[in-house]
Every structure is written in C-alpha cells, then in structure tokens.
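Q: Make up one entry.
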Amino acid sequence: MVDSTITASSAPVGKAPATPRVAAGRTGSFVPRLMTGLAIVLVWEIVVRAFAPAYVAKPSTVLLAIPRVIVEPAFLQALGQTVTAVAEGLAITIVAGTLIGLAMGRSSIVDRMIRVYINGFNALPMIVVLPLFSLWFGYSSSARIATIIFAAIFAITMNVADGARSVPREYLEVSRSFRSGRLRMLIDIVLPASMPYLLAGFRLAAGRALIGAVVAEFFLSVGGLGYYILYNSRSYHHDEAFVGVLLLAGFGVGFELLVNWATQRFMPWYRRDDKTN
C-alpha cells in the first residue's frame, strides 16, 4: 500500500491538464477574433448595399472575384514584381542595417556620430523622399528599391543597436578571458545575443518595406501590386483592387507568423511576452 502511494505520488502531475488549458486558451482567443471579423464583414456588406453605388466593392463580390483574379496574368506579374522588389530591398536592408546597428551598439563614437541622423531619417515620411528618388533614379524599379530600403533600414538599425548595447557584461568578460578578438566577439557573442532584437526589427521592417513598395508603385507608376490596385480602382474595378489589398494584408500576417515561428524554432531561450498570447 505504501509502495503504491509512493509510486503514485512520484508520477508526474500537472502535465495532463496542460493540453486542455492551452487548447482552451487558443479557442478562447480565436472565437472573439472570428466574431469580430464576421461582424465587420456583415456591417460592410449591409452599408455598401444600402448606401453605396453598385461598383463599390462588397465582401460577397470580392469573394467571388478572388478565384478569377488570382489566375490572371496581369495580377501574377504584378505580384511577382512587388514580391521580388521587397525581397531584394529586405536583403540589402538586413545586411546594411545589421552592420550599422552593431557599429552603433558597440562603439560610442559611432553612436554619437550618426544616431541623431538615424532618428531624424526614421521620423521622415517616406512620401517626402519619393520626389528625390525619382530625380536620382528615374521612374524605374531602382527608385522603388531605394524607397523600400529607406522605409525599412532604420527599424533594423535601431533594434540591432539596442540589442548590441544590451549584451550582458559577463558574456564579454568571458570572451576576453579566452582572448577572443573584437571581430570574433561580435560574431560569436554580440550578434547571437542581438538576434531577438534583430527579429523584432525585421518584423517592423518587413511591413514598412511592403508599404514602401506599394507607395512607390502608386506615385512612380511602376509595375506591381500597388499600380495594379491603383489602376483597377480608377477604372471602377473595385473588386479586383480589393483582392490585391487582401493579398497585401495576407503578406503582413504571413511575415508576423514567419518571425514568430523562427523565434520559437531557432531561439528556444527567447520567450516573447512569456508566450502569453
């Protein structure tokens, strides 16, 4: 009897109820979001049908237009142009922003020299620099790439700088005790410790890069999703334009899910908000 009691008490407890609690938490957060989305769509449908002209997009007509639009050659070409431009701009941004951020975070001289300019350019609306980029690069895809880089680089730079500055002193002292060089210390200690900050900056930079690409396509008339949306909205094809808008929103959600997955997969020591969501 005593043995059975000891065995029962030594068995792991608290593991089994965890799964129902997690499932209940996910269900509890999903249902309000779903209800809110359905309420917004219902109000949109009712208001447009009651007060708006017939050509204004409604949820029902947008839903019917999705299968037709996503196979159109013009839509696929615009999608490829925007995605390619955003990928190229983000690649340049991650490399340049990380290097500048590490230099700012580990060198007080560099930080004092350029921080004021980084903060100033970060607060500058990207629409202000578009005329300059169009003069320097012409009405071409190069101006779009420049706009994407300008929109995204400061988020990564500032976050990496904060991450490099917040590396625990004990890590650096251990690295110096093993006679690590400055470059080796940056690669092996500072950069891995700054990865959560880099991913946070990438989350912001991805959204800003997408906005920069669409704004550039609006004002420079460069082929892409932005110009596709603008053209269809001006030609009263609002359903087709809204398909592009929904796709851009899907890109934003996809970037967020990708960064969260990468954080949990490759940095198990990092817990964003203690996974309260």
Observations:
- The longest helix spans residues 18-51.
- The CA atoms of residues 231 and 241 lie 8 Å apart.
